[in-house]
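Good morning C.,

I know you're traveling, so I'll keep this short. The sequence:
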Amino acid sequence: MRPEKQMDIRTALKQGLAQLREARVTSFTLAAELLLLHVLGRDRTWLYAHPEEQLSSADADRYFALIARRANGEPTQHLTGKQEFWGLEFEVNPDVLIPRPETEHVIEVALDRLAVRELRAGRKQALIGEGLQIADIGTGSGCIAIALAKELPQATIFATDISSAALAVASRNASRHNVADRVRFLECNLLERLTASRVSSSTVSVVGAQHAAPQLGNTASGTELGSRITEHGSRFLDLIASNPPYIGHREAATLMREVRDHEPEIALYGGEEGYELYADLVAQSAANLKPGGILVLELGHNSRPAVQPLLDSSAWTNVGVTDDLAGISRVLAAERL
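The tokens, ready to paste straight into the viewer:
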């Protein structure tokens, strides 16, 4: 509870971080700063250049209300409605997983693998994605699909998710970053509706007017999308990237309350152990990747022993694992024979 007297920015920030520290909030200083920046609509440079600026009563009330909610366990990103990923700002809310920094390794590995493939083929090194067909499975906020769309401006990207609410957020993010004409959002489980043998104009469900922001007028129709997929045959994708649910239900009690109580269970849990979804994901990827196509998967902290053997079959080659900055096996990648 804040005192009734008027206060300046320095005092408000000091009181805010003290409340969060007392509530044992992780990164309490950063959270206090971000919430104040959100209320004031300012950047960090301005904040520290104007410590004696007086807060209006309305701004102070709003700030300390957010501090109380953060102290109660709500993620900072849900309170501000945004999270940065790959240098881009994404809308987030309780319908989507909050993008994590470690997921940026998925983008790095995908781009590196594509560049190596171009080098092997003797093609020019200016990688712009010309002619590439890419899928992001379990897109959530759309962060992987949209980051790849920005890096590969001539690629076509399909982004699937089982959650219509998540796809609505992802569609708005695609509009925000001006890639809505190249990212097709489909509501389905894994790659089910991307499997070419099952695709038709009647079975493809493209997220459009009912889930997208109004400006998404260029999203492909089901008929157009169906014909584009089927004309490539049963293996038509150049790259599949995914950050699937990989936490085990048995681990739920060990999660931070911000994660356990506020992020969508459907995006968190991959089964009792956490790695159950990978077998279907790998099998469906094998059925949809072109020869030489690339699969890039994010792993949970203990998923590698269960997941890597799925790529030991004759369908895959050039299997590799990339560690994150904490030394955890984070990204598993392979190429389709």
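Safe travels,
E.
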